[in-house]
Design goal:
Elements lengths: L2 E7 L3 H12 L4 E5 L25 H14 L3 E4 L2 E5 L5 E5 L3 E9 L3 E3 L7 H4 L4 E2 L2 H4 L7 E5 L3 H11 L4 E5 L9 H9 L3 E4 L2 E7 L6 E6 L5 E5 L2 E4 L3 E3 L29 E3 L11 H22 L1
Parallel strand pairs: 1-2, 1-6, 2-3, 6-17, 8-15, 9-10, 9-15, 10-11
Antiparallel strand pairs: 4-5, 5-6, 7-16, 12-13, 13-14
Helix pairs in contact: 1-2, 1-7, 5-6
Length: about 300
Amino acid sequence: MHIYDTVIIGGGPAGYSAALYAARGGLDTLLLERLSPGGQMALTGDIDNYPGFDEGIDGFTLGMKMMQGAERFGAATEYAEVKSLILTDEIKQIISDGKTYYAKTVILAMGANPRKLGLADEDTLTGRGVHYCAHCDGRFYKDKTVTVVGGGNSAAADALYLSRLAQKVYLVHRRDSLRAEKIYHQPLMEADNVEFIWDSRIIGLKSEEGFKGVTVENVKTGLQSAISCNGLFVSIGRSPATELDLGGVAVDKNGYIIADETTKTNIEGVFAAGDIRTKALRQVVTAAADGATAVHFAEEYLSVKK
């Protein structure tokens, strides 16, 4: 039975930042990833807001570089889907679909997934007209027409950001007013290129030889209409990737792991890094910072246990 100093679950920026810091610090480190390096980041065409890449970098390439950087210092990567965790014992158990791993500390870095509309062709058009991150992909729509769907802080912030790039922004919301904080209301109302489509939901995507627009339905009258646009930004929230049995790790009402800036969870020796934990800002750079922080406190925990 091999016992690792730390097992990291999730190969996004938080996970590989943690793997780099842990392996470089001399910890016996294993990272478990379900699909490919980079996590959700790998689906992003161009990333312009991660320091050090003056011309930007695509998410897949950045994910590979992060993996290679961690493996340079001896971190190992295995591809496995974790099903459940036993974390309250001193030696933690990570149970995958084919193997059980053992570790003194565990860093949970599974990330969060954008909520989708659940429409036909949505997956096919992802990255080809349908997007879930305005700051990641908005620059492709400079001087074009876009639609944003949602009414919370994320949707309002996305619409405001896109209003500075796009020629026209439609904001579709199923209620007659925004749920977003008041700070967003006045700037949006004053933006002359933002048009609100109230009491409406998107029920279809127009995609003849590429993305062409959306079909909306008024939730009160049932009246349907078409919006021609070059891109759609879905901002209806995110879902933390906490569908596995977390072994007693506490989560908030939305399913995010409760952990502050120390990344410590309610279980000793277990840490949560990146988009999966409760936090104000979910970006590649904040996820990477969490990974480094988690290792700092994991090392502190291990030094006390010796």
